[in-house]
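FORM 12-B: Structure-to-Sequence Request
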């Protein structure tokens, strides 16, 4: 199922996304997926209106894939993530530890 949603001008949601991938986009300072995931889940839990909206569309604390609607809800609360491509910061190598 492919569903495109426009959240902000020039930002398009294109299908489902791994929770951990979106967590790393919002919290790039973490060197591991686990740290970014914990931070994102904690921030979601701290925001009651965000939590309620996500729960209404099927989000749980065990969700691993975010639907386009879930991503849209998060973007409406936090704005789109700031994505840094590997070539932009040569002093910091792009690395995801698993």
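FORM 12-B RESPONSE
SEQUENCE OUT:
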């Amino acid at each position: 199922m492919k569903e495109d949603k426009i959240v902000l001008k020039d930002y398009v949601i294109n299908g489902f996304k791994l929770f951990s991938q979106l967590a790393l986009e919002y919290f790039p300072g973490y060197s591991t997926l686990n740290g970014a995931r914990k931070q994102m889940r904690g921030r979601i839990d701290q925001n009651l209106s965000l939590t309620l909206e996500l729960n209404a569309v099927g989000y749980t604390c065990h969700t691993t894939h975010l639907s386009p609607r879930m991503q849209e809800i998060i973007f409406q609360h936090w704005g789109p993530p700031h994505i840094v491509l590997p070539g932009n910061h040569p002093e910091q190598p792009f690395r995801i530890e698993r």
